[in-house]
Amino acid sequence: MLARSLVIFICVGILAGFIFGFYLHEIKNTNQLVFVDGPSISIVTEKSDFKKDEKIKITIVNSGTTQITFSDTSYGLKITGLFGIMIYSPPVSQVPTILEPREEIVYVWDQIKNDNAHVLEGLYKINSNGIDSLGNNVEKSVIVNIWK
Questions:
Q1: Which of 20, 91, 104, 110 counts the most CB atoms within 10 A of its CB?
Q2: Integer Cα distance of 36 and 65 in angstroms
């Protein structure tokens, strides 16, 4: 019985390690800009690991061949925790905005939340979403790490 429990424990450990490794691979994927046929948005940061209080340059690129429309001047930019809790969104005007193919817009985030507090160390999701010419939602997100 003890040997069987040990085998089960080892198998669960191997499976958990595999799943965690795959998760980390997805987080660390630095291939952020890929141009495609059709609608596509890409979010590009200089790196994925940032020091606390370091400015983060975020480039939103229309990486497709059709224009993308956004409901306001934020280009759909939202920064959340991994569980979707809103951390930051830029000030906006409610004016529809268009990003043409291969066109880009740059934001610099100073790691200050919407409530003017500094973010804590951790993982944050940078997201942008717009609408293509057929009315379909086009969305992209990347994960960044903030450390000491």
A1: 104
A2: 7
DSSP string of 95-146, one letter each residue: --EEE-TT-EEEEEE-SB-TTSPBPPSEEEEEEEEEE-TTS-EEEEEEEEEE
Alpha-carbon span 147 to 17, nearest angstrom: 23
DSSP three-state, residue 64? coil
Q: At 58, which amino acid appears?
A: I
Per residue in 69-82, pLDDT tens?
Answer: 999 999 999 999 98
List the CATH code of the domain at 32-147.
2.60.40.2360
* Listed residue (52, 78, 71, 60) closest to 146, CA to CA: 52
pLDDT < 70 regions, the chain: 1-32
SS3 61: strand
Reference 126, options 60, 33, 52, 39; nearest CA is 60
